[in-house]
């Protein structure tokens, strides 16, 4: 599994995980409600926040946004076809800013700390038969395996390009699905070996 925590130590690493998650939730709500002018200022503030942690940290944060570009492109193309490009740019900026903030939290917070906070927040769900530990570990697995999954997709696409002149497109769907199932099987085995959840 890959770690999303940045190796570059910043002041943000010292903030409590619960505070960062609460601020992220408030920021996400605020981003949804801001008018366009405020949204541009918020995006600039997020860029400044990344740069304040150092250029190496900011470059790492920018690399973490790379998987978002295809979604932003589809979003913009859709809004071009619906003749509402300004709205598409606004939605794309909202999405990009929110994901950049979420990445900032994951880059500056250890996964164990995030699991602990989610487990505490989910404790009331135990009354309804839902295990807070299972929920926390599930969220942690999603956070950890999304980059692994994207890495596998890129590796398979690269392998296809090495063997063929054409683009991989749909041809790698089955191998991607099989490697995802294989990874899930290995994780399930590891969880069972540790006594399960």
Automatic annotation (TrEMBL):
InterPro entries registered for this protein in UniProt: ABC/ECF_trnsptr_transmembrane
Predominant subcellular localization, coarse grouping: membrane
Recorded topology in the membrane: Multi-pass membrane protein
Compartment annotation: Membrane
Presence of the UniProt keyword Membrane in the record: yes
Keyword Membrane: yes
Keywords: Membrane, Transmembrane, Transmembrane helix
A Gene Ontology term for the protein's cellular component: plasma membrane
CDD domains: EcfT
Family to which this protein belongs: Belongs to the CbiQ family.
Protein name, as recorded: ABC transporter permease
Organism: Cereibacter changlensis JA139
